[in-house]
Amino acid sequence: MATQPAGDSGSTARERPAGWYGFAGVLFLVVGSVNVLQGFIALFKDDYYTITKSGLLFADFTAWGTFFLILGILEVLVGLGILALRTWARVVGVLLLMINTVVEFAFIAAFPIWTLAAIAINITAIFALMRPLDDYSGGPRYLD
């Protein structure tokens, strides 16, 4: 099952995410945190990257830093929404991860290893969010 009771109390038990859904929430928090870090690095220490400012697909490090900082903050907030089992967070999460995956290609010249790792993480998180919340605990269903 995708959710499990948080405690053993006899009162109304609050559910918490588990399985792929919980994995996606935590992964979203990690991706968002790294994007915030990447944004701060691009804003305040643009000589950290090994290419010149003109080596990016378009814009400069300040623009990319601002973009990644805003995207990272949104991703952290959506990750918290996913862990709180909010449907809006699931939808916004998939959209943000798709945008982030496409944008990472434009930033690949600045930090190729992290960019490829981030793309793999994004695709994994999209897969996790697209899975159904329940695990079909009623047994296999066959067409009649």
Mean pLDDT: 75
Low-confidence stretches: 6-14, 136-144
- Strand percentage: under 5%
State the distance separating the first and last CA atoms: 25 Å
Number of helices: 4
Order of adjacent strands in the largest pleated sheet: 1-2
Order of helices and strands: EEHHHH
Please compute the radius of gyration using only Cα atoms.
Answer: 18 Å
Descriptive account of the structure:
The longest helix has 26 residues, at 19-44. The protein is mainly alpha-helical. The protein has four helices and two strands; from the N terminus they run ββαααα. The chain has a two-stranded antiparallel sheet with strand order 1-2. Helix 1 (19-44) packs antiparallel against helix 4, helix 2 runs antiparallel to helix 3 and helix 3 (87-106) packs antiparallel against helix 4. Residues 6-14 and 136-144 have low confidence and may be disordered.
Task: Quickly describe the structure.
Helix content is 61%, strand content 4%.
Please specify the SSE layout and strand pairing.
Blueprint: E1 3-5, E2 15-17, H1 19-44, H2 61-83, H3 87-106, H4 112-130
Antiparallel strand pairs: 1-2
Helix pairs in contact: 1-2, 1-4, 2-3, 3-4
Keywords:
144 residues; mainly alpha; disordered C terminus; two-stranded antiparallel sheet
